Amino acid sequence: MSSLRIAVIGAGLAGISAATALNEANHMVTIFDKSRGSGGRMSSKRTEVGDLDLGAQYFTARDSHFRQLLQQWLDKGWVAEWTPRLFRFDQQGLHESADQQQRFVGTPRMSALSRHLIGDLRFQSQTRIAQVHRDDDNQWQLSDDVGAVHGPFDRIVVAVPAPQAVALLKQAPLLAQAAAQATMDAGWTLALAFEQSLPTPVEACFVRSGPLDWISRNSTKPGRGGRDTWVVQSTPGWAADHLDADHETIATHLQQALSEVLGLTLPSPASLHVHRWLYARPTDQCNWGALAAPELGIYVCGDWCLGGRLENAWLSGQQAAKTVQ
Hints:
There is one protein chain. By secondary structure, the protein is an alpha/beta fold. It folds into two domains: 5-34 and 127-181 and 284-323, FAD/NAD(P)-binding domain; 47-108 and 184-282, Polyamine Oxidase, Chain A, domain 2 (Alpha-Beta Complex), CATH 3.90.660. Helix content is 26%, strand content 32%. The strands form five sheets. A seven-stranded mixed beta sheet has the order 7-6-15-16-17-14-18. The protein has a six-stranded mixed beta sheet with strand order 9-2-1-13-20-19, with helices on one face. The chain has a three-stranded antiparallel beta sheet with strand order 10-11-12, with no helix packed on it. Helix 4 (162-168) packs antiparallel against helix 5. The longest helix is centred in the last third of the chain and has 16 residues, at 247-262. The N and C termini lie close together (7 Å).
C-alpha cells in the first residue's frame, strides 16, 4: 500500500495505538485532540503537592502481545508495577483484600506514558474537531470548533468516546448507529493532599457501599513525590444523580464518604481538586474490536469497542490500524 495521509481524532490510548501502528506502516499521521495534552482518560494533573492521576488509576495486561509490549515499556522506565496494600469496603466494613492481580502505572504519572508513546508523531492539541466531510475529490476535510479546516486526508480514524464519535460519523450511518448503541457512564473524581500522612494502612480500596467506587493513595504509586495525596472516584450511579452539582458540593460529599470508609476524621486538605468525567467508562462490554467503513475510508476505535480497560483501548487501536486500506 502506498503512503496515505491519515488523521487520528483523539489522543487517548486507542488513538495513540492506531497512530503508532500506522506510522510504523509508513503512513503520514496527524493526531488531533481537544485537550492540551495527550492520554484521554489517563489524564494526570501536575500540582505543587505532586502529580495526581485523575482518570485511569492503573492498568492490567492479559493479552500476550500486549504483555510483550508492556515489558518494553517497563525496560524503558515508562511504566512500573504498583503493589498497593489493598482493601475492600462493603456492608461488613473495611477489611484487607489482597489479590494476585498485577497492576501497572505510568511514571511519574499516568499521562507520561502517552507522551512517551506519541514521541515525534505530529500532534495537534487544543483542536476540537467538530465535523468531518469528504470533498469533491473524495478526500476528508476536518473542521474544528473555531472554523479552521484541516486536510485533506485519505483516511480518518475516530478514537473518541462513543457519544462524541456519533457526531463525527454522520457520513457513515452504519458506524454512527453502532456508536450510538455504546452508552458510557459518568464519574466524579476528587483529589486531595494532606500536610501530614493519614494514619491508615489503606493504599487502595474497592468500595462496594455508598457513593464511592474506588480509593487510591496516589502518593504510594512509583515515581510520585510530594505530600500524602489521595484520589477517590464515585460510582456511576451516584455521578448520574449529581451530574450537574457544583464542585464544592461534590467535594463535601466525597470527602465525607472517604472519612467514613477510612474511619477517620479528615483534617482540612492542603489541596483539593474536583474533576467531572462525562464519559468515564463504557456501560456495557462490547466485543467489536474496532469499526470500519473501508469504502469511505473511515475507521473507529476505543475502549468502548472492546471492553473498557486501557489494554483494550490499545488493542482496539491496533485492530483499527490493521483494517486501514
